[in-house]
Amino acid sequence: MQGTSNANQRIARIAAHLLPSNSQMMEGSSMNLGWENCRAKGASPGFKVAILGAAGGIGQPLSMLMKMNPLVSVLHLYDVVNTPGVTADISHMDTGAVVRGFLGKEKLDEALTGMDLVIIPAGVPRKPGMTRDDLFNINAGIVKTLCEGIARCCPRAIVNLISNPVNSTVAIAAEVFKKAGTYDPKLLLGVTMLDVVRANTFVAEVLGLDPREVDVPVVGGHAGVTILPLLSQVKPSCSFTPEEVNYLTDRIQNGGTEVVEAKAGAGSATLSMAYAAVKFADACLRGLRGEAGVVAYAFLESQACSASQPCYLDVHVAGLEKAKKELAASIQKGVSFARK
Ligand SMILES: NC(=O)c1ccc[n+]([C@@H]2O[C@H](COP(=O)([O-])OP(=O)(O)OC[C@H]3O[C@@H](n4cnc5c(N)ncnc54)[C@H](O)[C@@H]3O)[C@@H](O)[C@H]2O)c1
Ligand SMILES: O=C(O)C[C@H](O)C(=O)O
Prior knowledge:
Blueprint (H helix, E strand, L loop, with lengths): L2 H5 L12 H8 L19 E6 L6 H9 L4 E8 L3 H9 L6 E6 L4 H5 L4 E4 L15 H18 L4 E4 L4 H15 L7 E4 L1 H15 L10 E3 L6 E3 L12 H12 L1 H9 L7 H18 L9 E2 L13 H4 L3 H20 L1
Parallel strand pairs: 1-2, 1-4, 2-3, 4-5, 5-6
Antiparallel strand pairs: 6-9, 7-8
Helix pairs in contact: 3-11, 6-7, 7-13, 8-9, 8-11
The chain binds nicotinamide-adenine-dinucleotide and (2S)-2-hydroxybutanedioic acid.
EC number: 1.1.1.37
Pfam families: Ldh_1_C, Ldh_1_N
InterPro entries: Lactate/malate_DH_C (IPR022383), Lactate/malate_DH_N (IPR001236), Lactate_DH/Glyco_Ohase_4_C (IPR015955), Malate_DH_AS (IPR001252), Malate_DH_type1 (IPR010097), NAD(P)-bd_dom_sf (IPR036291)
């Protein structure tokens, strides 16, 4: 993730055709476990998923929703506080996944061993007046430690990274995995699905449609101007006035701040984030099991948009240069932190 091409890491299309190699590699590995081995006592066949930061504002509803996902057979809940209570509570739900709780740093490796998918909402949230980048000093270290565990215990797992600032934490994770020799850009995904969820909702409001009928591609990173809603690519096909474009772009780019201010010091988006994280995780699991045509957006390193192969976005997206500049700086900040 260096230079211009780094700034271009942004599109995520988790299409099933990208993932067969991943599935194949996992078949032969001692970590992964084909469908049969994924069977836990009392559970249906399915995937093993760990949530790191499971007792938090996002972690709790996310754990509940993942327990309801039929593709999950084993759910590991890890946090440095309160995991036993959350685990006991969630484990009483009469759905297929078996739930296990892991409390404290010494349990991290156990929580991660054998996982197919690791979702990370660990870290502190914003308060009014803060930027996501203001969280860097605390969250960078948390993400680094957790990713070192992933490299040790489940190097072929898909990682869904939620902890902010996503534009830098993904770079930190990538550096950790590179150092461990386990980095595969296809497996490391910064979660920007909440931007898509918000865009669908706000665009549907303007168009007078049901949000479930609306599909707004949102690319780029996950902070202010780095969030790039592609309003010309909305489905169903439609057009907006310049005023609508300004209103929608501003609202989508600042949706997180809208929630932070409304919560007035009690944190940032948790419930909509848990919903978005599950939507994204479900897309990953469906891709992983070989389902065709699964498409989602995330923040990742993409060779498709390198300097030598300009991406079509370079031509069409207003604000892209601004986004690239800010992304390049955020990525570099993460890289420098991880390398020091
Ligand atoms: N990507 C996105 O779209 C998006 C959306 C909303 C929030 N976020 C980010 O998600 C993060 C979590 O938000 P929240 O509202 O759930 O915060 P929270 O404070 O409610 O929960 C965070 C949890 O992380 C745990 N934690 C802290 N250090 C840990 C460690 N070393 N290992 C494991 N767990 C650890 C805490 O104990 C806590 O339970 C924040 O950084 C926030 O900015 C991202
Ligand atoms: O805005 C935040 O700090 C949390 C999150 O990134 C969001 O978009 O809601």
